[in-house]
Amino acid sequence: MNFTRWSARLPGTQRRTAARTEHTVSPDRRGEGAPVPAARAEQLTDDAPPVPAVDELPVRDVLDRVPALVALVHGPEHRVAYVNDAYTAAFGARPAGEPAREALPELDELGLLPLLDQVLRSAKSRTVKSRKTSNGRSYTFTCTPVDTSPEGQGGGVLIFATDVTDHAEAAERLRASERSQRETAVTLQRSLLPQELEEPDDLRIAATYQPGGTEAAVGGDWYDVITLGGGRTALVIGDVMGRGVRAAAVMGQLRTAVRAYARLDLPPHEVLQLLDGLATEIDANQIATCVYAVHDPNEGRLIYASAGHLPILVRDESGTVLRADEPTGPPLGTGGWLHASGSIPLGPGSTAVLYTDGLVERRDEDLDEGIASLERALAGATGTPQVVCDRLVRSAGVTADHDDDVAVLVLQHPARTGPDADLFRNAALELLGGVEAAPRARAFASGVLTSWRFPSDLHDLGVLAASELVANSLQHGTPPMRLRLRRTDRRLIIEVTDGDDHLPRRRRAEPADEAGRGIAIVATIASGWGSRRTPGGGKAVWCEFALPRGEG
Known about the structure:
Blueprint: H1 3-7, H2 13-22, H3 38-41, H4 59-65, E1 69-74, E2 79-83, H5 85-91, H6 100-103, H7 105-109, H8 113-122, E3 126-132, E4 138-147, E5 155-163, H9 165-192, E6 204-210, E7 220-229, E8 232-240, H10 245-262, H11 268-282, E9 288-296, E10 301-307, E11 313-315, E12 321-323, E13 328-329, E14 342-345, E15 350-355, H12 367-379, H13 385-395, E16 406-413, H14 419-422, E17 425-431, H15 437-451, H16 456-476, E18 481-487, E19 491-498, H17 518-525, E20 528-533, E21 539-546
Parallel strand pairs: 10-13
Antiparallel strand pairs: 1-2, 1-5, 3-4, 4-5, 6-16, 7-8, 8-9, 9-10, 10-14, 11-12, 11-15, 15-16, 17-18, 18-19, 19-21, 20-21
């Protein structure tokens, strides 16, 4: 075996040999013509001992002293020709002449034997980084082809392994830290999402949230369902831009604010205006998209406003999918924009889907194509809201290692027939005003509640509430006026609308006051009451009574 020839194949040897040749010093002025290395020329004196060239160094001695692991194998079976002292210290003595599969089992465990075949066939070096061996250390292996016969006819591979245990352990600590931060963000994210969805009387709702895969930081996707009273329900979905704990924290603040603003029973675009200002105060550099929608069973529509979010999709009873388009404003946190409300039908038998971009956005696909794919999936998705939700997620190819967070909110307005339909009834009376309005309202309410077979105590409370709300509207409102009664399987709802937009408030009436007791009476006898401005101008004042168990 010619170790001098192998030394020429070691990394950097050829480069240093070329550099030495280019920078040799000219013959000494005293006539000695032997060239010397340039780096040593200034140190030479008459008494200086000669300095050996690199080619004259004993290669085996050099390799034995190298701290890296060095092994030489030759032939198609990679028979062991040499291992240095560092290799022996790491894995023990290795018999020369034996095939690597038996003599170097550590390489077999790491899957490097096929790599040796590739190097031998291609005559090109290969490197594998940070492989952990059975001794607990991590190495980066470089395999270089060499000639193993004096005539240059044999083939071998020089294996050079550098200990990178410190780097590998540091990288693992970093990955562990990132995993810990991600788990913290996921825990925070899930804790800020609704632990249990509210269940409106007229809607069936399901939702899902799936964080991105282990390589993706958690985002700020959220959803919520808020019962507003009077049979109305608010539905929210949003996405805070950015990743990690900060995005999740901003999401939590926005979700809390949405619930607070929803209690004001404002139109969707006004809720988004308030959220926009709040998002700017929370973090001027953080923006979020959001859809806020309100379902009113009396109207059979979704009234919504969008702040840069993806369009709501609705499949009607016939299976046709509609896409809610305009109006759409810029994301929350941009400021200076007046949002507007729009509407989309959501009658009995319809299914609506609100979602975040992780469900439809792909790196290699246009966003509109993703939305179109979701429309096709929704057109064929039937069953309960949870079944529809799961089918949409599967059809979008969302898996555990998905590269983005996904939030989906599915709601259905069931088409009720038979006995179930008797539990959901409506009745309305137009009131023109005048002294006969209050008696007409009481008679109408009494007749309707009797036909709905309510017990006498609930019947009397309902008639009293209807009378007080109508009297309040007659005194403080303007025509047109309407009395509406609605029953569900859980509650009785009484609502009066008129053309004046001044909202009533509960106050304490003094003993000498002739008015001011109507709303106080309603608030005392009812399970809940409230008021809101209506889109066309005017207001609606409502109250509701919980039905006794078994009554629905």
